Automatic annotation (TrEMBL):
<keyword id="KW-0560">Oxidoreductase</keyword>
<keyword id="KW-0274">FAD</keyword>
<dbReference type="InterPro" id="IPR050097">
    <property type="entry name" value="Ferredoxin-NADP_redctase_2"/>
</dbReference>
<dbReference type="GO" id="GO:0004791">
    <property type="term" value="F:thioredoxin-disulfide reductase (NADPH) activity"/>
</dbReference>
<protein>
    <recommendedName>
        <fullName>Thioredoxin reductase</fullName>
        <ecNumber>1.8.1.9</ecNumber>
    </recommendedName>
</protein>
<comment type="subunit">
    <text>Homodimer.</text>
</comment>
<dbReference type="GO" id="GO:0005737">
    <property type="term" value="C:cytoplasm"/>
</dbReference>
<feature type="domain" description="FAD/NAD(P)-binding">
    <location>
        <begin position="2"/>
        <end position="288"/>
    </location>
</feature>
<comment type="similarity">
    <text>Belongs to the class-II pyridine nucleotide-disulfide oxidoreductase family.</text>
</comment>
<keyword id="KW-0676">Redox-active center</keyword>
<keyword id="KW-0285">Flavoprotein</keyword>
<dbReference type="GO" id="GO:0019430">
    <property type="term" value="P:removal of superoxide radicals"/>
</dbReference>
<dbReference type="InterPro" id="IPR036188">
    <property type="entry name" value="FAD/NAD-bd_sf"/>
</dbReference>
<dbReference type="InterPro" id="IPR023753">
    <property type="entry name" value="FAD/NAD-binding_dom"/>
</dbReference>
<dbReference type="InterPro" id="IPR005982">
    <property type="entry name" value="Thioredox_Rdtase"/>
</dbReference>
<dbReference type="Pfam" id="PF07992">
    <property type="entry name" value="Pyr_redox_2"/>
</dbReference>
Length: 301
């Protein structure tokens, strides 16, 4: 029997494990993929307080190592659901069942990809899904942002302060995001809109060197030289296995406030998988700490 069962081995989940173990709770972390989460693909992390620069993979492995040294039990299995029997919560995986007194959901999100040639190969080599994480590495360079929602607009706004040129590429003729930001971007000399267009290929051998674009109205194709491309076409939460035990919003994110409490008794949510305004490395770690302490409080009641 585990005191705290954590589903998801990214920054939020591993931070929760550290806090759980330090509180003397027997803690389990189940991860279906690679431990560390999305940050493992970042070549550099320079926005985490107290750490000037570290690779994403090193940061993640340090977290995992710290959690394991405290006694956390890591398991590589895919979770298929949660059951409850006689007040005990049971995490069900493809391999077995794990009884727990409390559960922290820290499943993260998957960034929606463009699905074009060169994208996967050049991820971390000019292709990014987080402008605030990686934008500083493109200071003075020419970049592109792909998307038409608020995130894409905010990314273009952020990058325009550091990059010599920002192209904002959208498949439609108008943006879905805030009009206020759109009007602000129109006034920036280093921002250019490319509308009614899609990315057909991300080009480059070792690093991103450019994009192949196609205008959806004319069919015309053209090359656009850029050093980086920031994909902002949405995020996909991975909460389907839990829709019967906790409430989700219309987009599939777990309804949980800053206390990380969900609609399920003894079930907490931490990190990008829950409803929140800001999804960053620091907020994931903060959520992990809050969720673990909330779980400890629940166990003491």
């Amino acid at each position: 029997m585990y005191d705290i069962g954590i589903i998801g081995g990214g920054t939020a989940g591993l931070t929760a494990a550290i806090y759980g173990q330090r509180a003397g709770k027997r803690t389990l972390v189940i991860e279906g993929g690679a431990f560390g989460g999305q940050i493992t693909t970042s070549p550099k992390v320079e926005n985490y307080p107290g750490i000037a620069s570290v690779s994403g993979s090193e940061f993640s492995m340090n977290l995992l190592d710290q959690a394991m040294k405290l006694g956390t039990e890591p398991v590589r299995e895919r979770v298929t659901g949660i059951l409850e029997e006689d007040g005990i919560k049971i995490i069900v995986t493809t391999e077995r069942e794990y009884p727990c007194k409390s559960i922290i959901l820290a499943t993260g999100v998957t960034h929606r990809h463009l699905g074009v040639p060169g994208e996967e190969r050049l991820t971390g080599a000019g292709v990014s899904y987080c402008a605030t994480c990686d934008g500083m590495f493109f200071r003075g360079k020419v970049v592109a942002v792909v998307g038409g929602g608020s995130t894409a607009l905010q990314d273009a706004e952020f990058l325009s302060e550091y990059c010599s040129k920002v192209y904002l590429i959208h498949r439609r003729d108008s943006f879905r995001g805030e009009e206020r930001i759109v009007e602000g971007l129109k006034k920036k000399e280093n921002v250019t809109f490319i509308l009614d267009s899609v990315v057909k290929e991300i080009c480059g051998e070792i690093q991103v060197e450019g994009l192949e674009l196609q205008n959806l109205k004319t069919g015309e194709k053209k090359k656009l030289p850029v050093s980086g491309v920031f994909v902002a076409v949405g995020q996909i939460p991975k909460n389907d296995p839990f829709e019967n035990v906790v409430k989700l919003d219309a987009d599939g994110f777990i309804l949980a406030a800053e206390d990380c409490m969900t609609s399920g008794v003894g079930i907490f949510a931490a990190g990008d998988c829950r409803t929140k305004e800001v999804r960053q490395l620091t907020t994931a770690a903060a959520d992990g700490a809050v969720a673990a302490l909330a779980a400890c409080k629940y166990l003491a009641e």
